[in-house]
Amino acid sequence: MHNDNPAPRARLLSLLVAAACGGLSATAAADPAITLTAAYALNGVAVPDALPEGSIFATPEGADFYLNRGEGGSSVFFHTYGFVGSPTYFGARASGEGLDFYAKTSALYSGTYTNTTGSAVMLNFGFNLEGGEVALWGDGDGMANLRLQIRRNGQVVSQGDTLVTQSGANFSCLESDIGALGAWAGCAAATSNHVHGAGGAYSVDMGLVAAGETITIDYDIVSTVSGQYVGGAVGSGDCYGGYGGYGEAVALAEDTPHMACVIYNGIARSGDPFDGNGLGPSADFSLTATAVALPEPGSLALLAAAGGGGWLGWRRRRGGRPG
Question: Structure pTM?
Fold first, then answer.
């Protein structure tokens, strides 16, 4: 089985886009960037850069990349995409089947936010998200992992991380969750082999941003599968039409032949809803800032005095002994 640690993680695309985030009253947000990455290996042989082999459609607002490859009884299919405009699309999928496969894709949204008001604000990052799934099927050993993560200045703010592993007839399902994205999925049991995500509108609290402060916001979806299987694969539907309708993206790729049903032993995928959640065909990235009323300096002084008096009283009750 391919080892994930030394595997190449090909940097496919980094595009600055000219779309502004919504909900930014009296604030400033730099144009966000979308970065797509992908790597794979079949039968232990890793490909250093998947981009030349795959199909990619790019616009000034983003790109859509996919690849379907089989060799010597093993195959992978992956799809990663990001468009920040109107509408917006964002997501990643990886799946594999057969004797020895590995596939990893990711979509990364990066942007900055500057509080140009004269007071601190509470900032929320909002977006729509498809349910997706993390699953293993068949006879063999494998791993499927999906991680959704949001960071502020490199520090994790919210995360939904679902890992399913298989060793022979034994399955294991683990969650590593933080904040709002922790609601994306939950293992029904510690031995679950198939987990469905909870699609919908998500709002992540990015915390307090001081007047004049600039922060960096990163949001990525990372899908990874690997395995060694001798049978039991299942089908995932038509790779293009089966997603429930691309909207703009399918129109951009009309000259690309629709693929037949993809067979897989392992799958990890999620992204924007493609209108599957009734939220509209858009990831709908938004930043919403809410002014925070801080106490007046006099009030702060009173609070400090009250706190100091309480501490002195506690000292007296302890007889002045050090704690």
Answer: 0.79
